[in-house]
Amino acid sequence: MCGNQIDLGNRSKGLFHAIWGMLRGSSLLLIVALFSAAVSGCAGLVAGTSTLNSAPVAPTITTQPVNQTVTAGQTATFTVVANGTTPMTYQWKKNGMAISGATSSSYTTPATTSSDNGSQFTVVVSNVAGNVTSSAATLTVNSSPQPLHITTNSLPGGQLLTPYSANLQATGGSLPYNWSVIGGQLPNGLGLSPANGTITGTPTSARTLTFTIQVKDSSGDTASASLSISITAATLAISTTGLPGGTVTVPYSAQLNATGGIAPYTWALATGALPAGLTLSSSGAISGTPTTAGTSSFTVQVTDASLLTAQQNLSISTAAGTACAPTGSGVCYYVSPTGSDSNSGTSTAPFLTIQHAANVVNPGDMVIVRDGTYNNAAVSGVGSKLIVMSRGGTAANHVVFIAEHKWGAKIDGLNNTSATGWAFAANYIDVRDFECEGFSDSCMDNYSGGSSSGGSSSGG
């Protein structure tokens, strides 16, 4: 039988025959026969096998392409997943037109433009058994945002200790923004809101500060700008618009005042001169004892801590007052409601009571009594007399008691019905220009000896 052997080639040593036949046209009968033969006289056993493959399966899509949204300039990627007999081929289409080279299961577009917005992308998957087209995926292309940019190029100034508010502005980029200070610092008392770019607060120091502001958008892009804020004090001004008058030999005191600016203030004369005997301190105090009658006009200047200045024209009128012209070797004594009997009785250190002056005078002396009310208690041993003149002058050198300003010094009996104002126990005493009140009788006894003269007199 070796001569009748069927050669299956080098693929098998067995023999497999598959015979297809039609059984009366009603069914397909698959007859598979496996023959094995042993032929006498042949070198060995010849055997053959063969397998019949199943029919190919057309592709089906298990994962459809999905819609994509990008910003102009970006790319978009579409992907499909399909099952079926391999190999399978892919062809992507844009708006129904095949895309050259787009033949894999995923497709990445070139950099998109606004004209790509709304495009439809599909893919046709094919194999030997057929093909299938995917559902359409839509590409949305958003406009590319403008570059991030801070549009605020300056900020308003502020005033010391006055609430401040300013808003930073930016354009472009992607909202929301986040604001920060990345260099320098804001003026003391001010702060920046990261969320809305508002600078608020109450400045506590007057100065100009420069700083760098940064804004960051939601995509991480940043922009920066250098800005500054100047904080100044309220306008410096001198609030003193007039000064009281003075009197020669009478101590004088007045205080200059200013508003605004930054304390401390420093005062000085800008032009003109104060009345003779008066000086201006750096703290704004005018003091001294005028020595010359008249009106002095001058300009004062105040300088604040930031070296801002303000000026004001002022004047002081000085009256001649009561001349102190004692005779002989006499001296002038002064009495004031603000004095002290432990003082020396000078113009700058006056006595408190007229009685104390009466106790120390000598011939030729003058007692100048400053404006005010004097109601010192009755002198012991002389009944209800308020002031006892026990020391007098001489015919050539009287002792003089005089009110500094006519009717300015008042002797008050406090409505004591038995009180009288003066008791003269010495000669040559002159009393001038006093006002009396609160007495039931004359407030002055006219001493009959020597030479005494009376001034104003009024009863209860």
Outline the structure in words.
With 460 residues, this protein is mainly beta. The chain has five domains: 1-52, no CATH class; 60-142, Immunoglobulin-like; 149-232, Immunoglobulins (Immunoglobulin-like), CATH 2.60.40; 237-319, Sandwich (Immunoglobulin-like), CATH 2.60.40.10; 332-439, no CATH class. 1% of the residues lie in helices and 42% in strands. It has one helix and 39 strands. The protein has one helix at residues 354-358; strands spanning 15-23, 27-35, 60-63, 68-71, 77-79, 81-83, 89-94, 97-98, 106-108, 120-127, 130-133, 137-142, 149-150, 158-159, 164-167, 170-171, 178-184, 190-192, 198-201, 208-216, 222-232, 237-238, 246-247, 252-255, 258-259, 266-272, 278-280, 285-288, 294-303, 309-319, 332-335, 366-369, 372-374, 385-389, 399-403, 409-416, 420-424, 429-432, 435-439. The strands form 13 sheets. Strands 4, 7, 8, 10, 11 and 12 form a six-stranded mixed beta sheet that branches. Strands 14-21-20-17 form a four-stranded mixed beta sheet, with no helix packed on it. A four-stranded mixed beta sheet has the order 23-30-29-26, with no helix packed on it. A hairpin with a 5-residue loop joins strand 18 and strand 19. The chain is rod-shaped, with a radius of gyration of 60 Å. The N and C termini lie far apart (179 Å). The model is unreliable at 1-50, 378-383 and 445-460 (pLDDT under 50).
